[in-house]
Amino acid sequence: MSRRLRWWAGILIPFGVLAVARWVLPLPFLVEVLIFSVYTMACNFLLGRVGFISFGQPAYLAAGAYGTAFYLYYFGRDPLLGILAGLASGLLFSAVVGLVFVRLRSDYFALVNLALAVIVYHLMQKVLAPITKGDNGLWFLDRMTSTPVLDLTRPDGFVWFAWLVAVAVWALYKALDDTVFGACCLATKTNEDKVKFLGYHDFKIRWTAFVLANTTAALAGSLYGVYFGFVSPEMASAARAADPVVVTILGGTGTLYGPLVGALAYVGMKDLVSGVVGNWEFFVGLLLVVIMLAGERGIWGTLEPWLRRRWAWRRPAPALQE
Amino acid sequence: MSAEILRTVDLTKRFGSFVAVDHVNFSLREGEVAGIVGPNGAGKTTFFNLVTGYHPPDEGRVVYLGQDVTHAPPQHRVGLGLVRTFQLASTFDALSVLDNLVLARFSRLHSGANVRVLLTAPRRRYYDDPRVQEVLERFQLVSQRDRLVRHLSLGEKRRLEIAMAILSEPRVLMLDEPLAGLSEAEIHQVMDVLRSQVGQRSMVVVEHKVSHLLGFVERLVVLHEGRVIAEGRPEECLQDPEVRRSYWRVGAESA
Ligand SMILES: Nc1ncnc2c1ncn2[C@@H]1O[C@H](COP(=O)(O)OP(=O)(O)OP(=O)(O)O)[C@@H](O)[C@H]1O
Ligand SMILES: [Mg+2]
Predict the structure, then answer these.
(1) Can you give the residue ranges of every domain in chain B?
(2) Could you say which of A150, A319, B72, B210 would form a disulfide bridge with A157 (CB–CB 3.0 to 4.6 Å)?
(3) Which architecture characterizes domain B88-169 according to CATH?
């Protein structure tokens, strides 16, 4: 019992702090951090646990966002069902794409994903313009009906929903680390041959990991869709393709809290720095260079050992280390 | 005489025009312990790679347990109990010693496990597995159990890999230079464990130092330039003039 409690404390303490910050921080900032951390979690898992570096995450983000948008624009009005539709379309999309992509390794994988993002952008902007309305995008803010308990159509309801989703995603990935599958993922990352020669089906392991991560990315896309009540091809823009990778590294690749810390830092810099000087991306780049030179451990990867010594934190389980 | 468990028929592998393994006919009986020796580049590792499914052969067949497995994927062969180790100790750097062992044990318990089983099985359930504890002790890895493998010495990694292979409880265990890079004490330790396995499984051991194999293997196969140049009881093999000529180290070390 106490182990389970400690396990949950590891998630609920940081997210609890974030929940309290709801009364301090601007709502849009918090929502963006939450959604972006979910988006980054997918990338963090791929990069830190499976060894896949993808510069095409916007493709999966868009797969979820458009699933949601199509449903809410053409078929229904319930934003919860809209999010389910986004999840389903993300799942389907990554399941099919994964059959081909997970056969590729590292550098090719990164580039092919980038190409995919470009293709998805083009599809949404031009080829499917009759149904996506091209660059104008799909607007469905007014079409959505209020949901009971947490009203997703209102920002102060949505922020709690996003918070719950983020907690669930964290719990999922943390639980995954504790399974044999989690160990298999890390194993394939460093030594695929040995995985095979222990009798495991390495392809199925990679495919499952890929589908799981990119469905998570699609979930982030769905959340964006419902939050803004609007989806346009910009979602798949290759110009933003490196973002989740950058934020993953900022936070600390392969750490549990890295994506959250990274998203905080990234969105924080975007909102704060851009208020003072124009070019906030320059500062993100600068920070990234510093992190790479300082040993690639990221913000959380650097903070964690320090905090641990300070408060003599005990880990709930011998978590998988990157 | 016990039944044949593994046989290769005219097994051949070429890399470009270079013939690494040249029409090798090899057979292994249930419970037998065989050694493969030969100079650098003789094709010992390539032969292992063909038998275990790392490379497809250009010619010939691999018959295991009466089945033609020449083109079967490695996982299929592992599932049938054909397990190998690698010349460069092959373990999972990013995992702890214990997790490495758990992966080996889990694969044995749920052979060819589907992903659903993997997803629902907690790793820690296998931490106290008696077999896992046993190999930890026998390979003197207890004090290292929670360390990441990337921080282990070469000798420790090699012991870990052999421990994993033994956890797989194979019918045929193929070891590619299991003693390379080990200290004298470690060699004794590993050889003790290997001796204790005799009778439980068949083994094929590639080893540079023939002296380590004497008294352990029943049969020796000498490879040279991809071909079998001698085969038989170890002492007899090493007296063979062709072996002495082509593989001076064999002669030198056995003297
Ligand atoms: N993948 C490959 N591509 C090209 N040539 C290869 C490949 N693998 C092995 N060879 C060549 O085949 C020959 C046999 O190599 P192999 O590794 O089987 O020898 P070995 O008997 O295991 O030697 P060692 O004692 O050094 O381990 C060598 O000349 C090697 O260079
Ligand atoms: Mg070799």
Answers:
(1) 1-81+170-255, 88-169
(2) A150
(3) 3-Layer(aba) Sandwich (3.40)
Q: Confirm or reject: Cβ of B36 under 6 Å from ligand 1.
A: no
Q: Which residues pair with B188 in a beta bridge?
A: none
Chain B environment of A210 (Cβ under 8 Å): none
Residue owning the nearest CA to atom 22 of ligand 1? B45
Taking each continuous run of H as one helix and of E as one strand, the counts in chain B are 11, 10
Q: Looking at CA atoms only, how far is residue B247 from chain A in angstroms? A: 31
Residues with Cβ within 8 Å of residue A171, at least 6 apart in sequence: A8, A11
Return the DSSP state at B190: H
Whether pLDDT at A322 is above 50: no
Partner-chain contact A199 B111, CB within 8 Å: yes
Distance CA B151, CA B91 (A): 12
Q: What are phi and psi of B103, to 5 degrees?
A: -60, -40
Nearest CA to ligand 1 atom 11: B20
* Atom 4 of ligand 1, residue of closest alpha carbon: B15
CB of B46 shorter than 6 A to ligand 1: yes
B93·A190 Cβ contact <8 A: yes
Q: What is the pLDDT of residues A160-203, one digit of tens each?
A: 999 999 999 999 999 999 999 999 999 999 899 999 999 999 99
- Beta-sheet pairing, A230-231 with B4-15: unpaired
Unique residue bearing structure tokens 């229904």: A76
Whole-structure pTM value: 0.91
Residue A117 to residue A246: CA distance in whole angstroms = 17
The minimum CA-CA distance between B75 and chain A, rounded to whole Å, is: 4
Report pLDDT digits (tens) over A278-289.
787 888 888 888
